[in-house]
Amino acid sequence: ITNDAREDEMDENLQAVSGIVGNLRHMAMDMSTEIDSQNRQVDRIVNKRPNRNKVEDF
Question: Which residues form the T-SNARE coiled-coil homology domain (predicted)?
């Protein structure tokens, strides 16, 4: 409100934090996409196993 140096510094810091949070959001979205892809791949591998429902007695 008073546009003094402290407020300017706080605004700059808030902008920096906002940028970092945005980067984290994008990283989280990329990680989610990669995990979904890997889960689908694991499911395909599991479904290709012979006798996948068979329980072996030891």
Answer: 4-45
Residue located via tokens 């694991």: 42
- Give pLDDT tens digits for 33-56: 999 999 999 999 888 877 666 655
| Residue in the structure block whose two tokens are 């030891």 | 58
Q: Does the pTM of the predicted model rise above 0.85?
A: no
DSSP assigned state of 22: H
CB burial of residue 48 (10 Å; 0-12, 13-18, 19+):
exposed
Helix (H, G, I), strand (E, B) or coil at 56: coil
